[in-house]
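[recover] target loaded
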């Protein structure tokens, strides 16, 4: 995904704020959406995906998928969770990521997307997590095209704590 200006910047004071943000995303995302989650280990990527799955109504919740490159969770929409921490660009054809990007029956969430390189065929929303001391996080959302308007709505809801 080409680097662009952040559509929204969220400041999370702790896990409850990050869970709330995931819930807001769950309400705004639609089938075919793809989210690439970036940030250092321990920044909250997997926690965000778990809370996203919970808000989508999944009974089974994600855990770090580092030893399972992809897991699917059923809820209002399916959640296809990829963790590419141990993958390289050469692995992408075998993993089948492109087969899930843009699927109308679910949302694709990809942790450590750097291994995926530039993907085409689906509009990708990038969420960047940064440590900000203790449990605090700065979460930047980068999106273009038609999804930017939906994300702007999340920003307005976020301000109404």
């Amino acid at each position: 995904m080409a680097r662009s200006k952040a559509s929204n910047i969220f400041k999370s004071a702790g896990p409850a704020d990050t869970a709330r943000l995931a819930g807001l995303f769950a309400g705004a995302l639609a089938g075919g959406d793809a989210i690439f989650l970036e940030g250092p280990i321990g920044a909250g990527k997997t926690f965000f995906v778990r809370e996203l799955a919970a808000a989508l109504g999944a009974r089974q919740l994600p855990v770090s998928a580092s030893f399972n490159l992809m897991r699917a969770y059923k809820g209002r929409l399916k959640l296809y969770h990829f963790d590419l921490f141990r993958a390289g660009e050469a692995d992408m054809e075998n993993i089948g990521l492109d087969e899930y990007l843009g699927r109308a029956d679910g949302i694709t969430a990809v942790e450590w997307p750097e291994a995926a390189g530039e993907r085409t065929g689906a509009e990708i929303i990038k969420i960047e997590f940064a440590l900000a001391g203790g449990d605090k996080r700065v979460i930047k959302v980068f999106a273009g095209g038609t999804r930017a308007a939906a994300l702007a709505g999340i920003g307005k809801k976020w301000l109404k704590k």
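[recover] notes: The first helix runs from residue 15 to 28.
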